[in-house]
Amino acid sequence: EGTVEPQSYEHLGNGDDKEFDIPQVDTPPTLESILNETDDEEESFVLEDPSLLNIDNIDTHSYDTSSLASSDSGDRTHLKRKKKLLDSFSLHGSVVRLSLLKGISAQIVSAAVSAASSLIAVGTSHGLALIFDPNQALRLCLGSTAVGAQYGAISALSINNDCSRLLCGFAKGQITMWDLASGKLLRSITDAHPPGTAILHIKFTDDPTLAICNDSGGSVFELSFKRVMGVRTCESRCLFSGSKGEVCCIEPLHAKTELRDHPITQYSLLAMASLTKILVIGLKPSLKVWMTFPYGRMDPSSVPLLAWHFVAVQNSVNPMLAFCRGDVVHFLLVKRDDSGAIHVTKQKQLHLHYDLINFTWINSRTVVLLDSVEKLHVIDRQTQEELETIEISEVQLVYNSSHFKSLATGGNVSQALALVGEKACYQSISSCGGQIFYLGTKSVHVMMIRSWRERVDHLLKQDCLTEALALAWSFHEGKAKAVVGLSGDANKRKAVIADRMVEILFHYADRTLKKCPDQGKIQVMEQHFQDMVPVTVDYCLLLQRTDLLFSQMYDKLSENSVAKGVFLECLEPYILSDKLMGMTAQVMKDLLLHYQDKNLMEDMEACIVHMDITSLDIQQVVLLCWENHLYDAMIYVYNSGMNDFISPMETFSVFLDEKVVMGNKLLVYISCCLAGRAYPLGDIPEDLVPLVKNQVFEFLIRLHSAEASADEEVYPYVRTLLHFDTREFLNVLALTFEDFKNDKQAVEYQQRIVDILLKVMVENSDFTPSQVGCLFTFLARQLAKPNNTLFVNRTLFDQVLEFLCSPDDDSRHSERQQVLLELLQVGGIVQFEENRLIPMAEKAEFYQICEFMYEREHLYDKIIDCYLRDPVRKEEVFNYIHNILSIPGYSAEEKQSVWQKAMKHIEELLLLSPNKAADLIATHFDDQIEGIIKNLQDMLQISPCVTEQFIELLCHYSPDQVLETLQVLEFYRLEETIQVRLVHGECSSKFGQVLVKDIEDTLVKTIALCQRNSHSLNQQQKSSIFIYGRGKLGEIQGLVLGMLDTFNYEQTLLETTTNLLNHDLHWSLCNLRASITKGLNPKQDYCCICLQQYKRRQEMADEIIVFSCGHLYHSVCLLSKECGIETKGQMRWTCYKCNSSNKGGKLSENFSELKKGNGASLAQVRFMGGSESLLDSQQIQAFDQLCRLYRGTSRLALLTELSRTRGGEKHGLLNVSQGDPALNSVFQNENFQLHLTPPPLTEE
């Protein structure tokens, strides 16, 4: 039950004068006549749901959507187009159907619609209300054009629950009530709300005497209808004033007939949406506000939306309010407690990526949203999954903008309400009974959820059989969304769906064969069936219809040999996953033959061991297994088919020496049998487990085999298994002993097995030490158990020790040591005498055994000897020493003993690995380094002859490395080494080339060589170095020393002079800054030339010039006396009065100095026109005055000259070019004098 607001006539087209066009017919149109009508559309209309609205004469039309869901068969070419299916379509199919109500659409031009259970009301822009029955036949035409001219367009409609009354709201504010049975006007209400406002909403409540209206002023009124003494009246009460916030949407809570007794209905709840918040109020028993909820920040143009619906939450049914403004939908659950109070709880929000203009519940789990670009979104509320998207722009939805702007009454609405009205379509969409009606400019459409069968059929129409099966299975499992049309208990629903799926599967199988490519490669056909056949098998097994799969489906697919092969092969994954345990004998036979023909024997074996034995032909399978060596399958058949667990072991034992694979399988098989597990998978039946264990043990301890020869040794089966893999066979026995219970029979079996093992292995010499060691390791583990019941003679362990430590046999030394070590580690040490074990291990050079024993006794220092004596593990001694000395957990005495032992063997460690020894010493012996080096001096010292020979070889083969090597070596004689260099410098082509090209480089390297060794020579020896080489170096000794002394003196002088000049420059700049930043005080306040005040008024901006002498001038006056000159864009001034005493040539000289940059006095300039001071000019003049104090050469020039002459030292200190005047030295100036006194102070 709801109303859909009509669109005003202006929005639909002003060119058409007709408001509606009802054809003249004698009788209402029938279903046949409508179906036979020719349509103007290019695509034909198809009847999709004849039961829509319980009518027979309705046609449907499909519109384009975001998927193939709503394209339907109206497009005759859709089967030829290849369209990609979206995920939502693949999962859910087409959930809803949008159809055109042609009967109504053909009779209206512009209208508004409201739907009830048995009526459809359409309001028009001329004030008429058209009432249609479910057959779309016009039943009533209420009102007149005269009333429409007075009241305006119908802006809101509402039909009460029993379809007996119709409320009409008008654009100019009037309200009328009609009797839908007789068509009479019952009430005409004009004073229910303030005049001049349009009716935006009018809604009946569940109480037929109570209605709510909302006007364009944003106010909400309660209308109470009464009949007193035959007079119908209407009382109005304001529920919310628009002055407190404009309400633009209202929604009373409506309950279905079966929910009328719900305790919350007695409150007559009403939800109101203003532009800023949501309110929920109760109209009964008295007016009360139950909740307010502010929106928060959002787009002011978005439309507030409200919608109620009863939903089941936590085994109770309560109303839920959905409200939205923008892209977030809020859900509020309303409950009533035992005290009668109402509580509102927030539920999970729905966040969208689009703005909404309509929200409609289609059922308690499914909502339909309309966004601002006119796309419908079908959403599952609980999972928030989008099921389908439909484009409805072709509907040409009617908007309610004119009523929200109240154009009929002069547009007297707020700007905010008018902005919201741009997207408002409240009265154009109405929902009733799971159907949603959409009012277009020239049509009315209805949308409803498809039934489950219709959704499946729709996919079948699209030729999407795989998707149809998947959707039907989701219905079967109860995982589908928006399900309609399934009733009854779960089993009944599943049966109905299963029958439909079987029908589809038959159709699918027929299509699989029909669409098989007749020509082309065989691989193409195989690929086709590999894509199609597994779907049939999968759904038959899901439906547990193996009877259907192996009878009708198999017979149908067997018509094609390729399809038959693919069918048989696709059974494998289901067999291996135990989804298919049995099949008919014929199919099983065909399966084995097919795998044999294609030589897929491993795959066939894997399938056999998963099959139910009753479906196998045992004779056929056994022969097949023997021929193709399928041992797992053969064991499975013997065990499961004949309960024979011994025959496989007897058979396999014969071939152990030939086939390793068979031996490994036999060991695993014995382990499974003794553990109660079936081979290769599953478990042995519980009642057979003890019997199987006894049989296996009896088999193993047999004295002779069944067909024994005369020379067969005793216990052949144990002997064979021990020879095949001693360690693994003993591991099998160890696992078996773990599972044994301590009963008498189990103890006897264990002892019997141990005695047989000792007899077989100890009394025979054909077993290796490793194999014997494995046996005694196994025994040691068993004897070390706390609940051990085995007995083994200790003398046997002594014999094993003698056997493993025998010094006469050096073969397999590492193997013997490893076996004995493993025996000791598992607890066998208790079987030996320790004082006898260590000497035997040392004698046999079993150093790992010694380490194990010493570690038990905490003799860590002796372990160092074990490492040093063990050639395999020598270098590990460094890590061992480091760990003992670093890791906590060892006592101080233990660490000290290890430290002392390491110091004792430091020479041996150094020879073993110098790098690791150095790291060890630096880490743990840093305080003993000097002593260690002293003790190792003799070992580390190398003969000088050896070093010199090494240098000579380097000179000959790697001369580039000689210098680097000499920097490191110490043990060489200086004279002999220099002689080697000189000899190879003259003879070797490389050194000869170096000496010729760069004698200086050779000299520098030779001097460096002498410097590095001079620390070991006395003064006389150092002096003699310079005389070496027949006196050539001695002759220039004095010259070189003199040059060094002169260099040191001149460098000191230059540094001292530079510091003095820097100090003078700093002092001068400080005084200059103090002078130029000090303000000047004029002696009078008038110009010394024109004798007028400096503040005189002139037409143009005038500057005031103040000099350091105290005289003040106007710039114009100074210019008139030619006391200013412009240089580089700036004016430079001289004081007229001070310079006027200088006659003639003196004045011209001053001006020439001014032009050169020298000013007569400091000046400050001020603009009378408000401009800024020219500080740059003042600074320049002050600097010029300072420069005049220094008539000599500046210090900066001196420094520049000095630095330049240093670069030309090779030409002489003062030898500069005379040809270029610019390069003449300042030192050659006849007036040059060096001022060492500080400069004079400037005048204040």
UniProtKB/TrEMBL annotation:
GO cellular component terms listed in the entry, alphabetical order: CORVET complex; early endosome; HOPS complex; late endosome
GO process terms (BP): endosomal vesicle fusion; protein targeting to vacuole
Keyword annotations from UniProtKB, A to Z: Metal-binding, Phosphoprotein, WD repeat, Zinc, Zinc-finger
Location of the region described as Disordered in the Swiss-Prot/TrEMBL record: 1-24
SMART domains linked: RING
WD repeat segments: 147-188
PROSITE patterns in UniProt: WD_REPEATS_2, ZF_RING_2
Domain RING-type: 1087-1139
Entry keyword Metal-binding: yes
UniProt family annotation: Belongs to the VPS8 family.
Function of the molecule: Plays a role in vesicle-mediated protein trafficking of the endocytic membrane transport pathway. Believed to act as a component of the putative CORVET endosomal tethering complexes which is proposed to be involved in the Rab5-to-Rab7 endosome conversion probably implicating MON1A/B, and via binding SNAREs and SNARE complexes to mediate tethering and docking events during SNARE-mediated membrane fusion. The CORVET complex is proposed to function as a Rab5 effector to mediate early endosome fusion probably in specific endosome subpopulations.
Name of the protein described by the UniProt record: Vacuolar protein sorting-associated protein 8 homolog
